[in-house]
Amino acid sequence: MKIAITQFVTLDGVSQGPGSADEDTTGDFERGGWFVPHLDEVFVQRASDWLDLADGLLLGRRTYEAFARDWPQITDPDDPFTGRMNALPKYVVSNTLTEGTWNPTTVLRGDIGETVGALRAAPGRELQVHGSARLASSLLAAGLVDTLRLVITPSIIGQGRRLLSDDADVGLRLTDHQITPRGLVVLEYEVTGPAPLATYEGTAHL
Fold first, then answer.
1. Are strands 54-60 and 126-130 parallel, antiparallel or unpaired?
2. For residue 174, which of 150, 139, 205 has the smallest C-alpha distance?
3. pLDDT (0 to 100) of residue 78
4. What is the C-alpha to C-alpha distance for residues 202 and 159, in angstroms, rounded to an integer?
5. Long-range residue pairs from 139-143, CB within 8 A, at least 24 positions apart, any chain
6. Which of 56, 57, 114, 189 registers the highest number of CB atoms within 10 A of its CB?
7. To the nearest whole percent, how much of the chain has pLDDT over 70?
8. d(CA 148, CA 139)
9. Global pTM?
10. In this structure, are residues 108 and 93 in contact, taking their beta carbons and an 8 Å threshold?
């Protein structure tokens, strides 16, 4: 299966607390809910199309516990995601969680290179990471990601946890892009390996 990461980020790279003021207040974060004003039907359809590709969800413990609390409680029959999110196999990366409550769930303990690497080698379409910014950053740094989808809001909030870690070394190839009516910039990348480097030698080779 391909490992596909979807992350909501501000223009200054913050990924913390996109959905509400109290979603994630760690580190005295006070600017949560920055993604919601920019939601529109075009993006909802795009996100639904992505979810159609999933054969499983790969989540960090914090995001898993929030999802496990909230998704089973959604009863709106017209919600485009609930049935699929609840039915998909869930894999949670945690050395502290002993079992999951949002079935079907498998807890992955130990080195992510081994545990996630084994899932990546298994047949299937996509194993999708939603939220779970710390896990996403670790997977990128470990070279375990195939697809990166960034959804960038037209906002700069100046506070909060950034998505990308200092030890990541990732080259990307843009495979698709879109701008939604409310200004979301949707960028889809294929991970190509380490970031390429070169030396600028003037305009002759441009």
1. parallel
2. 150
3. 83
4. 38
5. 139/3, 139/5, 139/112, 140/5, 140/164, 140/165, 140/168, 140/170, 140/191, 141/165, 141/167, 141/168, 141/169, 142/112, 142/113, 142/116, 143/193
6. 57
7. 97
8. 11
9. 0.92
10. yes
